[in-house]
Amino acid sequence: MASQQQLSAIKGAKVLMVGAGGIGCELLKTLALSGFQDIHIIDMDTIEVSNLNRQFLFRKSHVGLSKAKVARDAVLRFRPNVSITSYHANVKNQEFNVDFFKQFSVVLNGLDNLDARRHVNRLCLAADVPLVESGTTGFLGQVTVHVKGKTECYECQPKPAPKTYPVCTITSTPSKFVHCIVWAKDLLFAKLFGDKNQENDLNVRSSDPASSSDHAEDIFELNKDETIEHYGRRVFDHVFGYNIEVALSNEDTWKNRNKPRPIYSRDILPDEPTKQNGNADKNCATDGQSLISAMASLGMKNPQEIWSLMENSRIFIEAIKLFFTKREKDVGNLAFDKDDQLAVEFVTAAANIRAESFGIPMHSLFESKGIAGNIVHAVATTNAIIAGLIVIEAIKVLQNDANNYRMTYCLEHPSRKMLLMPVEPFEPNKSCYVCSETPLSLEINTHSAKLRDLVEKIVKAKLGMNFPLIMHGAALLYEVGDDLDEDMVANYNANLEKVLSELPSPVVSGTILSVEDLQQELSCNINVKHRDEFDEEKEPDGMVLSGWQETSLEKGDSSKTLGNGESTSKTLPSTKDADKNDDTDIVVSGRKRKLDEASSAVDISSEANSSKKPEVLDDDDDDLVMLDDGDSAINKKKRLQ
Amino acid sequence: MDGEELTEQETQLYDRQIRVWGADAQRRLSKAHVLVCGMKGAVAEFCKNIVLAGIGSLTLVDNRLVTEEALSANFLIPPDEGVFGGKTVAELCCDSLKDFNPMVRVSVIKGEPSSFNEEFLKTFDVIVVSCCSLAEKKSVNEKCRKLPKRTSFYTVDCRDSCGEIFVDLQDYKYAKKKLDDTVECQLSYPSFEESISVRWKAHPRKVSKLFYALRVIERFEEAERRNPGETSISDLPGVLKLKKEMCESQSVNEAHIPNALLERLVTNPTEFPPVCAVIGGILGQEVIKAISGKGDPLKNFFYFDAVDGKGIIEDISSQP
Ligand SMILES: [Zn+2]
């Protein structure tokens, strides 16, 4: 039961919830039960079947409807007197500006992606509204409190970047199944069914320029006079046979590696066209692309099963056939989508055949889908716990009870007896470019990089700005907005294509650029420094931003230990780049955090402790808990069996 | 892997959680039968969690008619009085729970926990009791331990901003991931009665004060023949007197159970919804672990207090 002071703080509060997914459903329910009267909720997503196992406000009949709206209606059914306002919209829309945020007493995030989290963080800072942030992955979760000037902001700690792989690992020397998935999804699938104009490294230029002729490009075109079966086999033989032979001819590559084995369709599949023994006709009867399935055509059912090489090859050919016969219109403009059954089947089969070729263990469709779609593991219980903790923090924030703000970790394995571990929040990071005024510095080749590169790779991708404005002194170099006149737009577009040093107001070594996002009310300065050369593998952007840090997701060591006196090692909440429609990402950063050893622990066995004061810690427990930038999420993927 | 495959529908619906605990655990869940007695807020949360997770069946016991208090932290009961129509709390909760997951069988049994016989209890794999008297907890727990097959027993209660879970898995074997291997582990649990009978002096160091405070209140309610949770500020002197007696008989200093904590628990016996969410979530996870036989289960008490924010496991077993 809440105290009177708590109740009056709750009743007078106007709360903004961002996200009506896994955490959001639980949070909206708990807020309503706790007595909150005025709740606004934003979510751009619609309901999917895979949400129903944990987003308990949704039913099968709601699939396809707005999460925010359905969640509102569901909660009103058991708490009809609460005022709930729903917005089926992207929180990054301009309508949700600083003034919009200013009307709220506290903002509660139940988001699924880094981008939106950063955006909300900036608006909360600009509007000076406290933010309670959260995330879950499987049994792990965390809640943090961000109050301007009192605690660190969401971006004070470096955030993980999505994992990228060196190009040659994907194109030539895969050593893990995920490399085969990336190849199948980003290169082969994109080549066959995606935009033909996109850059694609599928056919790496071999050392002999003659062999990388036009022929290599034609191979992926369906000829007028051939059957799709023939075309499928031609593609198969090219990517799994010919290309591997070409790669093998490069002896140096294989000195310290296992040689791959070329695979040709004639060795795997009989010459006749593959027979359909499934119920393909049934597929035609029902509409919806998810029902067009190579597995169904071939009479295969179990997504948990690992297919044989022959089964993978059949799926591969069958999926190509189905794309070209049943989904002709899609071919040429498809992007991989984890909810597209046929696309997942094709990518699974292609990745498995490649894995087989390179001696890497094959995986089931279920597992492949998880890897290809970056699917975050999610259970209802963790979301419910985290939602409860969010409300507890929100109530403290409403009472301005700063001394008791905590960030809380929900652990899978107890640490010092704790499954829920509260930690005192950090102070703001003085060199945070978001909540302090520290300038960033950028090394870039000012004679070859265009303004477009700077806008795309730095301002948008790294700084996460949506409506950037770039100034050099008093000169406006670039701006995005709805209210610009045509001349200005033309002018800015021309600037985008110019090399930095040739801009109307040249950007050279020593230039200080001022970058602003008017919607986020965020501005920062970038000190430009010219550099000629960049390492293609390590610095693929061709520029390096510092003062802004990001950590890599994959660092090898995945479990970190907590505390000094503990003998067992525990997996900490970790980092995950969550995909859309799922619940979270979790970030633990690398600093020492003071554990809150409050007075609830009592040493009954010692009669000496008879004073009324909280117990003094008399054993060798170390109160300082080391939270490293764990990255066990990658590891977690392997828990499936 | 025993039993039949998951259906396509199950794989699709449970996709995200199968990625957490595996298809085998999901199959075991779908064959498990759970009994819960006492449908307050924390139990409502727990029921929601395991119904969503895809438990085989859930049987509810709560003969109370709906009151303002029953409504407070329970989102399974629609507030529209017209719907009540003489229905019990369990019946109303059942209707809502069925709706959460059509694949789970949810039903209601009338009766008191103390009257359940072996024939009835042995049809369940997991039994959870809440808002029961000390005597009822002990009696259901003892009956569970006499059943021909191992049955997991839990108690759960929330008051003010605090919650307690007790776990008895008897002699429990489970699998645990250690690096890339799976190792077999075994734990032996004491009963509720055995646990609370362990001399306080023999406890591990620094046991949560909530353990002691809740034992005092439990005893008080029993002595005064109150229903669980039926206390008010006027009971504080009586509770403090009992605390003194209990501390004396256990030869521990009275200061180990802060009066302020007792005052909170006695004055505000109703549940705090965020704490119900936390406790119901932890209990859900524990029951899923116990059914799937995977992962370290908690042994044998869990405490959460929103005031300090800690969720603590205490192992209070008889000493050799
Ligand atoms: Zn900051």
TrEMBL record, chain A:
InterPro entries: ThiF/MoeB/HesA, ThiF_NAD_FAD-bd, UAE_UbL_dom, Ub-E1_IAD_1, Ub_act_enz_dom_a_sf, Uba2, UBA_E1_SCCH, Ubiquitin-activating_enz. Residues 617-631 have a biased composition (Acidic residues). Residues 328-369 form the Ubiquitin-activating enzyme SCCH domain. Pathway: Protein modification; protein sumoylation. CDD domains: Uba2_SUMO. Residues 5-433 form the THIF-type NAD/FAD binding fold domain. Residues 549-641 are annotated as: Disordered. Residues 559-574 have a biased composition (Polar residues). The keyword Nucleotide-binding applies. Keywords: ATP-binding, Metal-binding, Nucleotide-binding, Ubl conjugation pathway, Zinc. Residues 442-534 form the Ubiquitin/SUMO-activating enzyme ubiquitin-like domain. Heterodimer. PANTHER family: SUMO-ACTIVATING ENZYME SUBUNIT 2, UBIQUITIN-ACTIVATING ENZYME E1. This is SUMO-activating enzyme subunit.
TrEMBL record, chain B:
Residues 14-308 form the THIF-type NAD/FAD binding fold domain. CDD domains: Aos1_SUMO. It holds the Pfam family ThiF. Coiled coil: none annotated. InterPro entries: ThiF/MoeB/HesA (IPR045886), ThiF_NAD_FAD-bd (IPR000594), Ubiquitin-activating_enz (IPR035985). PANTHER family: SUMO-ACTIVATING ENZYME SUBUNIT 1, UBIQUITIN-ACTIVATING ENZYME E1. This is THIF-type NAD/FAD binding fold domain-containing protein. It comes from Citrullus colocynthis (colocynth).
